[in-house]
Amino acid sequence: DTLHVLVNDAGGFFTRREETADGLELTFALNHLSYFLVTNLLMDAIKSSAPARIINLTSGIHARERQMPFDDLQTMEFYKGFKAYGRSKLANLLFTYELARRLEDTGVTVNAYNPGFTATGLGMQPGGFGPLMRWMVSKMAKNPQKAAEPLIWLASSDEVEGVSGNYFEHKEPVRSSAASHDTSAARILWEISEKMTGHKTGV
Predict the structure, then answer these.
(1) From which residue to which does any coiled coil extend (predicted)?
(2) Residue 203 within a domain
(3) 85 an active-site residue?
């Protein structure tokens, strides 16, 4: 099978702590572990299709988290929606940079993209955003089509051919938080993600 572009864009925001059927905290499972598992399940097809591109959507809210809480990734203590969301977005970047390192010289590039405050369905389900945030989304969030333009550019433009291990806002590479560049934390997160998903990667 041929797969030249993979865009990971699953995401959710939950004000109350919830779990998946497997007993995993829902925010972390949906926002990070789904990226990790789907990407690695498709890895053979991606590598055999090179040149290929992997793009992980993330958020600027990652910068609020100074480190990954490896002692409480399941957020068993003091769950807060924005805290859990920020942690999952930091995980997206740690995963992006670690995967880019592991796929160096394979012809597969890996980058992260922050679409910004966009009017999607994120947080609009029961148990999601409260009334104030819903109002802000309706009045201030950008159009999804506009937010998608840089994503399409990242997926298809010759301008970013061979560019890997970057965090983009609009069409510009920008510096993400110091915590997101912690290579030791990225390796630990990878190993934990393998255990949590039950999928040992070959990357």
Answers:
(1) none
(2) no
(3) yes
